Amino acid sequence: KVLVIGANGQIGTELVLALRGIYGAEQVVASDINDAADVIKDGPFEYVNVLDPNNLRKVFEKHQPTQVYLLAAILSAVGEQKPRLAWDLNMDGLLSVLDLAVEFKVTKVFWPSSIAVFGPHSPQYNTPQYCVMDPNTVYGFSKLAGERWCEYYHAKHGLDVRSIRYPGLISWKAAPGGGTTDYAIHIFHEALKTKSYTSFLSADTALPMMYMDDAIRATISLMDAPAEQISIRSSYNLGGISFNPEQLAAEIKKHIPEFEISYAENDPRQAIADSWPKSIDDSQALQDWGWKLEFGIEKMTEEMLKNLSK
Ligand code: VAH
Questions:
Q1: Which protein residue has the closest C-alpha to ligand 1 atom 4?
Q2: Residue whose CB lies within 8 A of the most ligand 1 atoms, among 169, 243, 269, 280, for a mutation test
Q3: H-type helices in 128-195, by residue range?
Q4: Given 41, 47, 180, 211, which is the most exposed site by the fewest CB atoms within 10 A?
Q5: How many other CB atoms are found less than 10 A from the CB of residue 240?
Q6: d(C-alpha 210, C-alpha 206), whole Å
Q7: Would you indicate the residue range of the signal peptide (predicted)?
Q8: Using one digit for the tens of pLDDT, what is the confidence trace for 251-278?
């Protein structure tokens, strides 16, 4: 059985769909703190609260999972409003799952990190796998600490835990979770509804982004790779496409010529975005498990507008 924790989230819903396509619906148990999202109602679902170790244990006992994907997290923007909850949920949730995975001899564990683990003193362009990392958001340093714990559980307990530093993910099947990159999703909804959008990030704020189909394919590729090919047990850099709001607006205008973008001032998410890299070097992922991006900004924009117009 595969257990997906945080299955209702932006990544979780799409991982459940992809994993059910591979293993069959009955083999993939979705779980979250509220009722199953509509898109994933076609298979087993459990109520899970990652802050309740007894509840987690019961689900592990009942399903004896061979793979566990832990997506539950508080993201960057919400994390700055609720710093203690973000730290507790992101850290205690991970530690509880790592301990249960060792106890129940889970074969493989996936846990998402983020380009948010880099900070103001990290190289901003083509950020390498290893460099100075001084993240200044709770979300960022909880993910950095989580990477250290993942590497530790692999070294000390032999747990096969794997991780990807996702860039900002763009998708249409489920809502984003309160992050700084959410503008790149909202803009498509607004472009179709009102042909205008007010961006909370400035025109020249470039960030590493990725279309969700690429992110899901990368996750499955990483999890399918033979263990001896995995040289990174903290978390793999993954770059995707780097663009700023102005460039994304120009791409949307190719499809909706009358689309207009404007920019809000002093949004707290601007400072978060300014602390993150503008582009990422993901050559290690190419070397270890053959990573290749498929969706550039043109194809991603086409897919988003097409699917949101249905
Ligand atoms: C966030 N979407 O904005 C997440 C992600 C790189 C960004 O970690 O917090």
A1: 179
A2: 169
A3: 138-157, 183-194
A4: 41
A5: 27
A6: 13
A7: none
A8: 999 999 999 999 999 999 999 999 999 9
